[in-house]
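User: Can you help me understand a structure? I only have the sequence.
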Amino acid sequence: MSFPEHRPRRLRRTPALRELARETRVTPADLFDALFVVEGSGVREPIAAMPGVSRLSVDQLADEAKRIQDLGLGGVILFGIPSHKDALGTGAYDPDGIIPRALRAMKKATPELLTIADVCLCEYTDHGHCGVWDGSSVHNDETLPLLARSAVVAAEAGADVVAPSDMMDGRVRAIRRALDEARLEDTVILSYAAKYASAFYGPFREAAESAPQTGDRRGYQMDPANAREALAELETDLAEGADALMVKPAMPCLDIVAKARERFAVPLFAYQVSGEYSMLQAAIERGWLESPRAVDESLVAIRRAGADRIITYFAKDYARRHRG
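Assistant: Let's start by predicting it. Here is the structure, written out as tokens:
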């Protein structure tokens, strides 16, 4: 029997040879941590649905920021959980609200750490929807100025990047104009441009206390069945002034990440969401998946699909294991 001259197994024989042939790498700098910030003092409250993740009070953030920076992570995205919620989500654009205070604390401790402020109303409204709610639907155009105010407040507090995640039409243009009018034209907009109405957000809604009280978000978040629509959303947000784009969730949408990477030249993020994290953690805890291999494989798959950066709750753990 004759064998082909080319034998792919030659490059798989040893760890050194596999490293030589490796096409995709994930470094700590490729990963962004996500933090949930709450009112109070001395709070480090574990989240039951997300083992290893905790809600933190503002006074805990200086040390957390230093840990993130020392691990060499790319940065952090912040989600606020206020003590007061109301119909219009006023806490989202309060200059002394939970996220502005968090940003000031982190920037004082670690001025060089890249900070992203999530821009949405869902954590701040008593009904749990991402905009102005009339009991049956969200009013898109009435929501835009509130989102714009939220973005300006976050940028004034030190956010390097604002990330609208609400999926209202026209919100990137509204935010860009508001930032420019406030002389914050250097603030980057990272748009959750392709955000699906996914079943994988459940643990996050527990963590952020942001589940809708009535109805759901399928009227404004994308249908998971649609791919062409995602590309149209990405293109629209770029045209409105987005500087970077995000696909969410990550692993169920690797095809969208790949299509976006082929089509758009701007930085591309993918969010490995709470359900992806909790699902892997649950299987690992039961011995059904091998850790850390399963975690590392999930992250390399997202990078291989084309994401430049990944928001993941595994960020600190991965960085501890892969520091140079």
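Now, to help you interpret it: The mean pLDDT is 93. The two ends are 46 Å apart (CA to CA). Let me know which part you'd like to focus on.
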